[in-house]
Each structure stands twice: as structure tokens, then as C-alpha cells.
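User: two proteins, same treatment. go.

Assistant:
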Amino acid sequence: MRLYDDYGYYGDGAGFAAAFFVFFAVFAVVWVLFVAGYYVLNGFAFMSFYRKVGVKPWIAWVPYYNQFVWLQVGGHVGWFIFLAVVPFGGWAVIVFLAIGMYRTGIAMGKPGGWVVLGIFLPFAWAFVMGAKENVYRPELITAAGYGPPLAGYGSAPNYANVDYVAPQYPQQPTQTPPPPAA
């Protein structure tokens, strides 16, 4: 199909299609680089945060499991992360993460305003909370009237914060056979 206007011939649209394809390809490459950069930034930020609170740092690199553990550090059940697959459930996850950030901020001695940073820039919040000068004191969470964290220091042992050690069972007493009858 040929396109015309009042001044003459425009072309058959192939140039427009090529320009659209190039624009879309460049946009896709930029988007992939942005997402990969955000993932790496988030990974390093939460590695420092998880080290500070007593969670294995490699968990920061596992998608969904890192937020599962993040919820546990904030004193919530990690299974709340699965609300994200329900329509509008992601908003509930954000609310639970914000409450957890508030509780973690209490343990770090930070005021509640730091939650705003955590909501909009979670990697920046994690870098600040994981900084060397911050001291994580989980007993302050329970002193403020909240439940203890479910992962990290101040929690009961679980896979996220303790290396697995097989349970030690007591040894069965050895029995010697009776002497043979004569």
C-alpha cells in the first residue's frame, strides 16, 4: 500500500516498520540492562543487610525466597509472599514488608521515617541498614511489644540462619550376650 499526502509520495510504510522495530529492539535492550542492574544492586544491598541481621547472605540472590526471608526478619510469616500472585495481593505484601521494615528499624535504632525510604528504594534502605556503623539489637523489637523476628539473630533456629546439624541421638546401650549354658 502506498501512502501519499498533499505534497507527494511518502513510501510504502517499510521505513516506518523498520524504525518501529529498531526502537522496540533498543527499548528491550535498555530494559533488560535496567532490570539486570537493579537485580545486582538489590542483591548486594540485601547481602549486607542479611549479614547484619544474621541470615545467610546468598539468600539475597534467590528471587522470591529473599523476600520470604525478609518478611521473616520483619517478624511475619514468610508465606505472605505468595499473596503477590493474587490480584492486588502484592499491595498486602508491600504493607507487611513495610511493617517488617519498621520493626527492623526499631532493632537498628532508626526512627519510623526510614520506612518511607524502604518502600520507594528498598535497595537504599537495605544498604543503610546493613552499614557497618549500625548495630542490630533484636531484643529492642520485643521490648517495643512486637513479636521476635522469625529469621536471623533473635529468632528460633531455622534454615535461613543456622547451618543444618543432624540431631544427635543417644547411643543404645550395648548388651553382651549371656554366657552359653554348660
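Protein 2:
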Amino acid sequence: MSERRYVDPKTGEVVDDVEIRPFTDVLRELGEGATLSELSEDFYDLIQRVQDTGKPGTLSFVLTVGFDGQGRIQVKEEIKSKLPEFARPTTRFFIDRQGNPSRRDPNQPELPSLEDRRQLKESNR
């Protein structure tokens, strides 16, 4: 890792070769631990959906860091996941004489149903 230098904006004190705190330590403290839990759960859900659909998905984590001018930073996190969608079946319809969608072909004669056949049979007795 390259050498880093920190200059305290309030005192001007210079610290050479600073020890950088591991990001995972900071991540555990964001949102009092809720951020790490949410990321873990979202990542798990993403993995499951990718396996179920065979399609890719995304999980984005963005940190916005601001400085308050009094020696403190403000960190706001944003988590977005885009789970892949399941394939939806296509349903085909005919257009009837009224212009409405119909599953039945309006140009094809209608076959008698079982109920129609029972009624015909009973009426011939």
C-alpha cells in the first residue's frame, strides 16, 4: 500500500504513514449494523433469484460522504438491488367480431361441451 499522510484540518498536525482502518470495520458501524445486515440479506436474495431465473441481477451500494466543518464527516448510504424477473408466459388471443380479445377462434365452429352432450342425450330419451 502507498504511504498516506493525514493533516488535521483544525490543528494542522501532520501524521505520516497513517494506519488505515479496515473498511469492514466502518461497514459494521453504518446504520448501527443495520446496513451490513441489509446488504447481506439483499445479496442472499439476489443469489437465490439469479439461480432461480438463470438471469443476472445487481446489488449497488453507494456511500455519500460530507464534511460538517467541525471535524466530523457525515456518511449516508444507499442500497439498491435489482432482482432478475421470472419469465412470464405469452398468452395469445384472437380478436372477436366485437374487437375484444378471446381465447376462442371466432372463425372456427364451436365444439359441443360435455354439458351440451349430456343435455342432448337426456332430451333424446
